[in-house]
Design brief:
single chain, 419 residues, alpha/beta, Aspartate Aminotransferase, domain 1, Aspartate Aminotransferase, domain 2, 4-stranded antiparallel β-sheet
Length: 419
């Protein structure tokens, strides 16, 4: 039997949510830049750092426990990604992982080849490929975005992707507009010419159950600190691609577990913390879904389902409220009836003040939001805000509440009246 969603119980799973500063509770509306850590992630990290703080591959107990913990983290990570354990690569963060992969992938590129990038992606899924293309004399072609709908110009795909295309990168959910993109369509187009594909799922991973095998991409990146874990990167690399890439490693280096393309000695505690973060999502499925006693993948899917239901309530409440405030420009889907097409990441500008000034006013009330462009370099330029202060970004996770949304809306209304 499904247990009704309980804000108090959910928030109790995040120690940071109980903190108060100068009598003011913290209101975390900064989730797109990084969520708070679930207690399960912290517990896993502490165990790693205290019970078996040792490097991998040794004959002694703590090293062996590190090996066991790494294997477990890869297994849990694979279930989260919809992949196999030998297709999971951990790294410092998504940006450094993609730079690392770009060095391996571009070895075979030649002058006259082409790659396709987009005007929507975080620059971590643009700059590494731009640099590699410049070094190899490869032509870069761009998939544009419709500035009115914030959707990809899918009608461009047939002309952009040709027999010369070697690589296509795209974005699952925008960290700027929150738009969920039809990445299957892009991947399918790229596969017709045998191009390698890369999906940036960093912003979607906290809100949508991922299935790398079903999406069909060769690469898919996530950042655990965006889904209740520690600062790290976790990448899916399709086995067929992994087998043909030459590892970029020091000599000698074993090409076995946990993954031959891992860039050096990993943060074992970050891997353990990522496992704990994923277990938190599974707990949501056990507690508020109908997945108690089910396999991990089913618990995760149930966890995402109940979290999405809650986030949908938050998003609808926010969109209805923001539509009543004068002088607001919202970038992304604004129709409360169409929230299934976005994640709860909202970028906006108020005529009353610059994004930074609004963020500073909110910060005085212990409300945490972001101002800027958030490395959405191409998109912010396409929308004309890159050199004009960017936007105010407000983002929610399943630990936020309707009362917090109302608090933010009231403060935004006050900012308008105070002009």
């Amino acid at each position: 039997m499904t247990t009704r969603w309980n804000d108090v119980e959910v928030r109790a799973a995040f120690p940071a949510l109980a903190l108060v500063d100068d009598g003011k509770p913290r209101l975390y509306a900064d989730a797109p830049g990084g969520t708070q850590l679930a207690a399960r992630a912290l517990d896993r990290m502490r165990l790693s750092l205290v019970d078996h703080c040792a490097n991998e591959g040794g004959a002694f107990r703590t090293s062996q426990r590190t090996d066991e913990a790494m294997i477990a983290a890869h297994q849990v990570g694979a279930t989260f990604l919809g992949a196999d354990p030998d297709e999971v690569v951990f790294g410092l963060n998504t940006t450094s992982l993609l730079f690392h992969v770009s060095r391996m992938l571009a070895r075979d590129w030649q002058a006259g080849d082409e790659i396709v990038l987009t005007r929507v992606d975080h620059d971590a899924n643009v700059a590494p490929w731009l640099i590699a293309a410049e070094e190899k004399g490869v032509t870069v072609r761009w998939l544009d975005v419709d500035p009115e709908t914030h959707q990809y110009r899918y009608d461009m795909l047939d002309a952009l992707i040709t027999k010369k295309t070697r690589f296509v990168a795209c974005n699952h959910a925008s960290n700027f507009s929150g738009t969920i993109n039809d990445v299957r369509r892009i991947v399918a187009a790229a596969r017709t010419v045998g191009a390698v594909t890369m999906i940036d799922a960093v912003q979607s991973a906290a809100h949508l159950a991922l299935d790398a095998h079903a999406l069909g991409s060769d690469l898919l990146a996530t950042s655990p600190y965006k889904y209740f874990g520690p600062h790290a990167g976790m990448l899916y690399m399709k086995r067929a691609l992994s087998e043909r890439l030459v590892p970029l490693k020091v000599r000698p280096s074993p090409n076995d577990m946990p993954h031959k393309h891992a860039p050096g000695t990993p943060s074992f505690e970050a891997q353990a913390g990522t496992q704990g973060a994923i277990e938190h999502i599974a707990w949501l499925g056990e507690r508020f879904g109908e997945a108690a006693g089910k396999p991990l993948r089913e618990r995760l899917e149930a966890g995402f389902a109940v979290a999405t239901d809650h986030e949908t309530r938050l998003s609808k409440h926010f969109l209805k409220g923001i539509s009543q405030i004068r002088g607001v420009t919202l970038y992304g889907i604004a129709d409360a009836a169409a929230v299934s097409g976005r994640v709860p990441t909202f970028s906006l500008r108020l005529a009353a003040a610059t994004p930074l000034k609004i963020a500073e006013r909110l910060a005085l009330e212990n409300v945490y939001t972001w101002a800027g462009t958030f490395y959405a370099y191409e998109l912010s330029g396409r929308l004309g805000v890159r050199d004009d202060g960017g936007v105010l970004r407000i983002g929610f996770a399943h630990y936020n509440t309707v009362a917090e949304v109302e608090r933010i809306l009231a403060l935004l209304e006050e900012s308008v009246r105070a002009r």
